[in-house]
UniProtKB/TrEMBL annotation:
Keywords: Membrane, Transmembrane, Transmembrane helix. This is Dolichyl-phosphate-mannose-protein mannosyltransferase. It comes from Kineothrix alysoides. The chain crosses the membrane at residues 12-35, 41-60, 81-103, 156-174, 181-201, 207-224, 284-306, 346-365, 372-389, 395-414.
Amino acid sequence: MKMKKTWFSYLLWLLYMAITGILLATCIITISIYTWELSNYFAAACVCLFFAGVAGLWLAGSKIAAYAADRIPKDKHFANMWECFVAMCIFAGAVLYRIYYLLHAGEAVERNLFYEMAQVTDGGGIPNITHGASYVYTALLSAVFSFMGNKAEAGVGLQFVLQLLSMLFLYFGIRLLSGRVTALCATAFMAVSPAFVTNMFSLTPQGLYLLLYAAGLWMTGLYLRGLVKGGYRRAGSYFSFLLLGIYIGMISYLDILGITLFFFAGMCFVAVKGSGRGSKESKNIGVGIQFIVILIAALLTAAGIIKLDAVYSGQSFEDIAAVWALQYSDNIHPHYSIPGPDVQPVVSLVVCFIAALGAVGFLMRRYQKMDAWVLFLAALTAISFSGIGRMDYGIFAAVIWGTLAGLGLCSMGAEAEEKAEISPAAEKLRINEIEVEEIQVDNAPESDTQAEIVRVEDIQKSDVQSKAALEETVQKDDMPLETVPIEVVQKDDMRTEAIPSKGIEQSTIDGNLVRIESINIDKEALSEERGGKEEIKKEIKFIENPLPLPKKHVKKDMDYAIEVLSEQMDYDISPKENDDFDI
């Protein structure tokens, strides 16, 4: 969803530039360790060269995208067909690549603590785990083991299914939030990312939690589309935000990373405030109420789950809440590294280079789509720095950087989209254009007279600038000026006022002055042109109606006499005397 740039967007842009620069420097230093050792100053110089290369690539790519956009059919059906084809190819390639990797990689399955706890034994069930996502994953893995046996391959199959479902939900969620091209780019990176593929052999809860988080993104995208189409005042909007708040509260209880879904829910509010429906005050009130609905629903849901846990375990609500908060504050181990797209530095370097295109596109375009994703990246970086996370978030970082890379590629072709789409302000300006139909000259000299035609240059200029432009136009001593009435077509709230001192008309549209330009018009040529128009109007002839008209009914009269014999005038039938029909 496109959003206007604000002061907060520029702060996020600076943060994004800092994170990208640090990650690029880290990747360069890591690569230099295995190739040739470079100093830190040389790594900083390489980062500057990388950003210069990003700017040059973006400028070249924008020209190529504009050239290609004029030659690609702008048919929605054509775009949908190509999107379906590319998406199916990506998902098919992801499935085949994972199957091939499972058959030929020969990588051993990590038999970690979750594998040990999920095994089905005669001793008992699943032990009590404080971390909600870990407990749910252990229960799910134990259910799979109960059907397929305590085999590590069964856990790999579960990870395989969870990854494919996560990619599916992420594709639809990113498509609704950031566009189809961004979704295709992010899904393509997830399909071939080594971080995703190797995660199948690690029986950890991040695959399950990624699926739950992707479902939350998809729900947020659906509510965003519903708000844009139906408006924030529709009957089901508050119910939709209530469901979204309940879901955010549920996955926030499972892991603290679920709180970041509030960033994407905020995109819905920005979309509503940016729409042209309703006044600014009413939209602010409506958006504020909806945010309160989401916040209260999330808090009540998290509190309700904690209460159910307390009832199930036989402890108090305060004890369970304290244990839940203690798991994130206890044993904090700071880790001073930025989560990158992949564990391999070369892959991270390439993806960060493409993602940096979005930083250039932010400055060159009027709209942006990066705010929520940069906030998500900043939150994940803060969790990684502080060490409060209870699981590995490597695949989440891959999703974020893949999406940012897709946004960077899309920013190069955003100019064609802006030209194709007509914004509400441009549409209003086009409707409010003044069309001059006639210029009536009264008592003008035979020489060339000067008429003023009012044109809308910029209705958003201030009164001071408009008055200054008006004074520059009318201060001409070498031409005689006089009052010339102008007949215009009024499309909006417009009024004309005559200036007696200068003899010129000025127009005011919505309280703003518009510039008046001067042209020279020959009176005789104007009179001849008017006379020709009047003659043309008089000579207009209409064609006959080609449709058949209804015929008039004519009553028919008989023009001859009918002579009837006297024998035929007797209508009574008399029986014969010898007729015995009644016997």
